[in-house]
Design a protein that fits this description.
CATH superfamily of the largest domain: FAD/NAD(P)-binding domain
CATH class of the largest domain: Alpha Beta
Helix content: 25-40%
Radius of gyration: 21 Å
GO molecular function: FAD binding
Shape: globular
CATH topology of the largest domain: FAD/NAD(P)-binding domain
Protein name: 2-polyprenyl-6-methoxyphenol hydroxylase
Organism: Streptosporangium canum
Distance between the termini: 12 Å
InterPro entries: FAD-bd, FAD/NAD-bd_sf, FAD_aromatic-hydroxylase
Length: 395
């Protein structure tokens, strides 16, 4: 196919979006190059969901069976009280809002699988974009190269977005919550199980998966302001959960030595446009819906597929492809960002009264014979958002 000379495309970030985009660009006859600040594909990470339209993308990559083989196999999810007593419980998929063939996997496993599928794509590890001047890209390493297009797939705190669109503060909107997650010893001996403890303004989770001999602790809490340094982050986390019951004090004791400590604000990216000149954005860099949506990975997979497809359809003409990509993705993004803003209010309850009432309702629902039908109604908004886009059968 003739691509009007627009064949060499630089992708900033070996993220889920970036690697998926590299795969599809190569499939469509373009020459993608991926630059990644890390020295290798990032392993580990928390568990993520692939739902709805994103499953179609994975299937079209020939990876659906392998993705299903990477499932975390979390069998049960329960809400516990201060003393660790289970208030309510259900199967792992219902607890995570999954239906049909939806798959929960570790982020690192999916990243590795996508990287293997994109075999032959050029990767520049341990480097990052320093400046973009037309087709000329200068890297932090001093390397200077020319690319027809540049795509930012470098996450919530996108360097590409800052260079091409302006400072982060214009586009990243803090939702008023923080999130932290890190590995801890599996001292409760959980076997593919997830436990959730809810307090006023703060929620804590502990889970184990099939692939992990340890466990992961996750914290979501109402907070104002951003904290950048790790020492300050850990202090803020400890202070926010001071006086919490259940296993929270013991989980917090493990954060100082955790090799994978992660901390950030829950935020969404909202932009009037995702493209300017020869630069476009995909995934969290363009339209992060926050972890509260449970749809970040699916948005990344679908967004990368659509962007690559529109570039193919336009024979490499970015002036046609970028607007077409944006027009197709906008309703899907809006549905999933709305999901994030709604979910967080149910995940983190604001008062002791809300917590008490929630525990009462969970106990009642757990005893009802129609529990499965009730849960199906709870899951329906997630499924509706996950399928809120019609993907072309072919490009």
């Amino acid at each position: 196919m003739y691509y009007s000379g627009m064949t060499n495309i630089l992708i900033s970030g070996a993220s889920i979006a970036g690697t998926t985009l590299a795969y599809w660009l190569r499939e469509h006859g373009f020459t993608p190059t991926v630059v990644e600040r890390a020295t290798e594909v990032r392993e580990g990470g928390y568990k993520i969901d692939i739902r709805g339209a994103a499953l179609d993308v994975v299937e079209r990559m020939g990876l659906l069976e392998k993705v299903h083989g990477l499932r975390t196999d979390v069998r049960t999810g329960s809400v516990v009280d201060d003393g660790g007593r289970k208030v309510a419980g259900m199967d792992g998929d219902s607890f995570g809002g999954r239906v049909h063939e939806d798959a929960e996997v570790h982020r690192g496993d999916l990243a590795r699988l996508l990287h293997e599928a994109a075999n032959g794509v050029e990767y520049l590890f341990g480097d990052s974009i320093a400046s973009i001047d037309g087709t000329q890209v200068t890297f932090d390493s001093g390397l200077v190269r020319h690319f027809d297009l540049v795509i930012g797939a470098d996450g919530l705190h996108s360097n590409t977005r800052a260079l091409a669109f302006g400072p982060e503060e214009r586009f990243v909107h803090d939702m008023g919550y923080n999130v932290s997650i890190f590995s801890v010893p599996n001292h409760l001996g959980l076997d593919r199980e997830e436990l959730t403890y809810v307090g006023p303004g703060r929620t804590a989770l502990l889970y184990s998966t099939r692939q992990d001999t340890g466990a992961k602790a996750m914290f979501l809490w109402a907070a104002d302001g951003k904290v950048r340094e790790r020492v300050e982050q850990q202090r803020a986390l400890a202070q926010s959960y001071s006086g919490s019951g259940w296993e929270v004090p013991r989980l917090l004791d493990g954060m100082a030595d955790a090799p994978d400590f992660y901390f950030d604000s829950l935020s969404q990216v909202r932009m009037d446009t995702w493209h300017t000149g020869r630069v476009a954005l995909v995934g969290d860099a363009a339209y992060c819906a926050s972890p509260a949506s449970g749809q970040g990975t699916s948005l990344a997979l679908v967004g990368a597929y659509v962007l690559a497809g529109e570039l193919k359809r336009a024979a490499g003409d970015h002036t046609a492809a970028f607007p077409a990509y944006e027009a197709r993705m906008r309703p899907f993004v809006a549905a999933n960002q709305a999901l994030g803003t709604g979910n967080i209010k149910r995940m983190v309850l604001s008062s002791r009264f809300q917590v008490r009432m929630s525990m009462v309702m969970l106990r009642l629902v757990n005893l009802l014979p129609g529990k499965d039908r009730i849960m199906a109604k709870v899951v329906e908004p997630i499924h509706r958002a996950a399928t809120a886009i019609a993907l072309p059968a072919s490009w």
